[in-house]
Description:
The protein is of the alpha+beta class. The chain is 22% helix and 12% strand.
Amino acid sequence: MPKCTFCGNSIERSTGKIFVYASGKVINFCSRKCEKNLLQLKRKPLRVRWTEDYRKATKKDQKNVKK
Length: 67
C-alpha cells in the first residue's frame, strides 16, 4: 500500500489520488485535505502539526515511546 506524500498515512486500495508532475515525479494523496495543503497552499509537511513528518521532527511520535 502506498503512503500519502503529505501526511504519511497509508492509502487503502482503490482510494486516494495520484498526481504526476510534468517532470515525471509521482506523489500520492490520501485525501483532498492533503492535496490542497501541498499543491495549492504550498505547505511543508514538517510545519503542519498533524503530519507524520512533524511528529518525527519534534519527537512527539507516541508509537515509539518506551514506558
